[in-house]
Amino acid sequence: MKRTLSGWRRNLAVLWLGTFIAGMGFSEVMPFLSLYVGQLGDFTKGQLTIYSGVTYAVTFLVVALVSPIWGKLADRHGRKLMLLRSSLGMALVIGLMGFVHNIWTLILLRFLQGLCAGYIPNASALIATETPKENSGTAIGILTTGYVSGNLIGPILGGVLAQLFSIRLTFVITGVLLLIVFVLSLTLVHEHYHPDLSRKQPKTRELVNQFKNPTLIITLLVSTMIIQMGNNSITPIISLYVKELMHNVGPITVVAGIIAALPGISTLLAAPKLGQLGDKHGTDRILVFGFVFAIFMYFPQGLVSSIWTLGLLRFMIGISDGALFPTVQTLLSKNTPQHLTGTIFSWNQSFQTMGSMLGALLGGLVSNWFDYNGVFIFTALSLLVNFIVVLIFIPSMRHPFATKG
Question: Which of 92, 122, 175, 230 could form a disulfide with 82 if both were Cys (CB 3.0 to 4.6 A apart)?
Fold first, then answer.
C-alpha cells in the first residue's frame, strides 16, 4: 500500500506540473491570436473578424469530434500513451505556427492542434484511476489547480514575451515548453493500468448501458457543457465591458487583464479545499453549493456600475468554478467503471469544448441584442436552468445534506 500511495502522489506531482505548463502554453497564444491573423494579410475589418473567428473555432470543433476516439484508444492502450501523443503533437504544431505566412496555413495548424488535444482529460483520467477512491476528490481538485494556474499565468507571460520579442517567437517558446511536458510525462509518469484487450469496445449507442446510472452520467456531461458555455460567453466581451465601465479612461488593457485573471486566482485557492470538503462531507453538497453560488454571483455582474464591484464578483466566480468543474469530474469518476474512465473523461472534454463554442457564439449574439450586461444575466439564467435539470434527473441532489456522495 505504501508503494501504491507514493506512486499516485508522484504521478499527481508530475502531472500537476505537466498540466500547469500545458495550461500556460495553450493560453499564452490566445490573447494575441487575432492580432497574429492581422499580420498574415491585408484584411478588411470584416475579413479579419471572420478569419479570427474561424481560426479560434476550428480547434474547438475538431476537439469535440475526435475526443471520444482518443478516449476509446486511451481505454484500450493506456492514458500515458495519450499524454505523450498530445504533448509531443502540440509542441510541434504550436511551434510551427511561428513560421506561417498565410492565414490558411495557420488555420490548418489550428485544425491539427485540435487533433493533438487531450493532455488535460487524460491526465485527469490517469489520476482518477491511479488514485484511491477516498482521495480522488482531493487529487482531482489539486490537479485542476495546475491547469487553472497555468491558464492564469499564460496570457500575462504571452503578452510579455510578445512585447519583448515577437508573436512569432512566442509560438516557438510555447512549443519548447510543451516539449518539456512531453519529456516529463515520458520519464516520470508511471501507469499501472492494464487494459483488458479481450474486452470489445462498446459503440457510442451502447456506451450508456455500461453504467449503473446512465441518466446521472448524461446529466453531468450536459452540465459540463452549460457551465463552460457560461464561462466562455463572458470571455469575448469582458475587455469591452471593462472599457465601458471605465468610460474609456485609464489603463484599460491592464485592468481588463486583471479582471480576466481574478476567477483563475480564486479557483486556484478554492479547488483543493472544496475537493477535500467533498471527500469528507459529500460531493453532492459541493455541486449544489457551486450552482447556487454561481447563479447569485453572475446576476449582479450585469448590473454593476463600478469596476471594483465587477472585480469582486469575478473573483467570486472562480470559487464556483472550483466547486463545479472538479466536482463534476469526481462524480463522473466515482460513477464510471474503471475500464471506461478514459472514454468518459474524453466525452467530458467534448462537452466542455462544445460549451466553449456555444459560449463564444451566444455571447456575441446576446451582447448584440441586449448589450454587454445581458451576457451575464443570460449566463445566470443558463446555470439556473442547468441546476433545475440536475435536481430533476439526479434525485440525490435534492437532499444533499442528508446524503454523502
Answer: 122
- Residue 29 CA to residue 106 CA, distance in Å, equals 13
Q: Return per-residue pLDDT of the chain as tens, 405 residues.
A: 444 446 777 888 888 988 888 888 777 776 566 667 778 888 775 566 567 667 777 787 787 788 778 777 777 777 888 888 988 999 999 999 999 999 899 999 989 988 888 888 788 878 877 777 667 677 877 887 788 778 777 777 776 777 677 778 888 988 998 999 899 888 888 877 665 555 555 565 566 666 777 788 888 889 889 988 888 777 666 666 777 788 877 766 567 667 777 887 888 788 888 878 877 777 778 888 888 999 999 989 888 888 899 889 989 998 888 888 888 878 887 777 777 776 777 778 778 878 877 776 777 677 767 777 888 888 899 999 999 988 888 777 766 655 444
Closest among 143, 362, 351 to 227, alpha carbons compared: 351
Residue 72 CA: distances (Å) to CA of 118, 199, 342: 12, 12, 7
Q: Residue 377 corresponds to which cell in the numbers above?
A: 444575466
Query: CA 349 to CA 48: how far, in whole Å?
Result: 29
- Rounded to whole angstroms, the Cα distance separating 50 from 56 reads 10
How far apart are the C-alpha atoms of 310 and 301, rounded to whole Å? 6
CA quadruple 251, 252, 253, 258: dihedral positive or negative? positive
Q: DSSP assignment of 68-93, as one string? A: HHHHHHHHHH-HHHHHHHHHHHHHHH
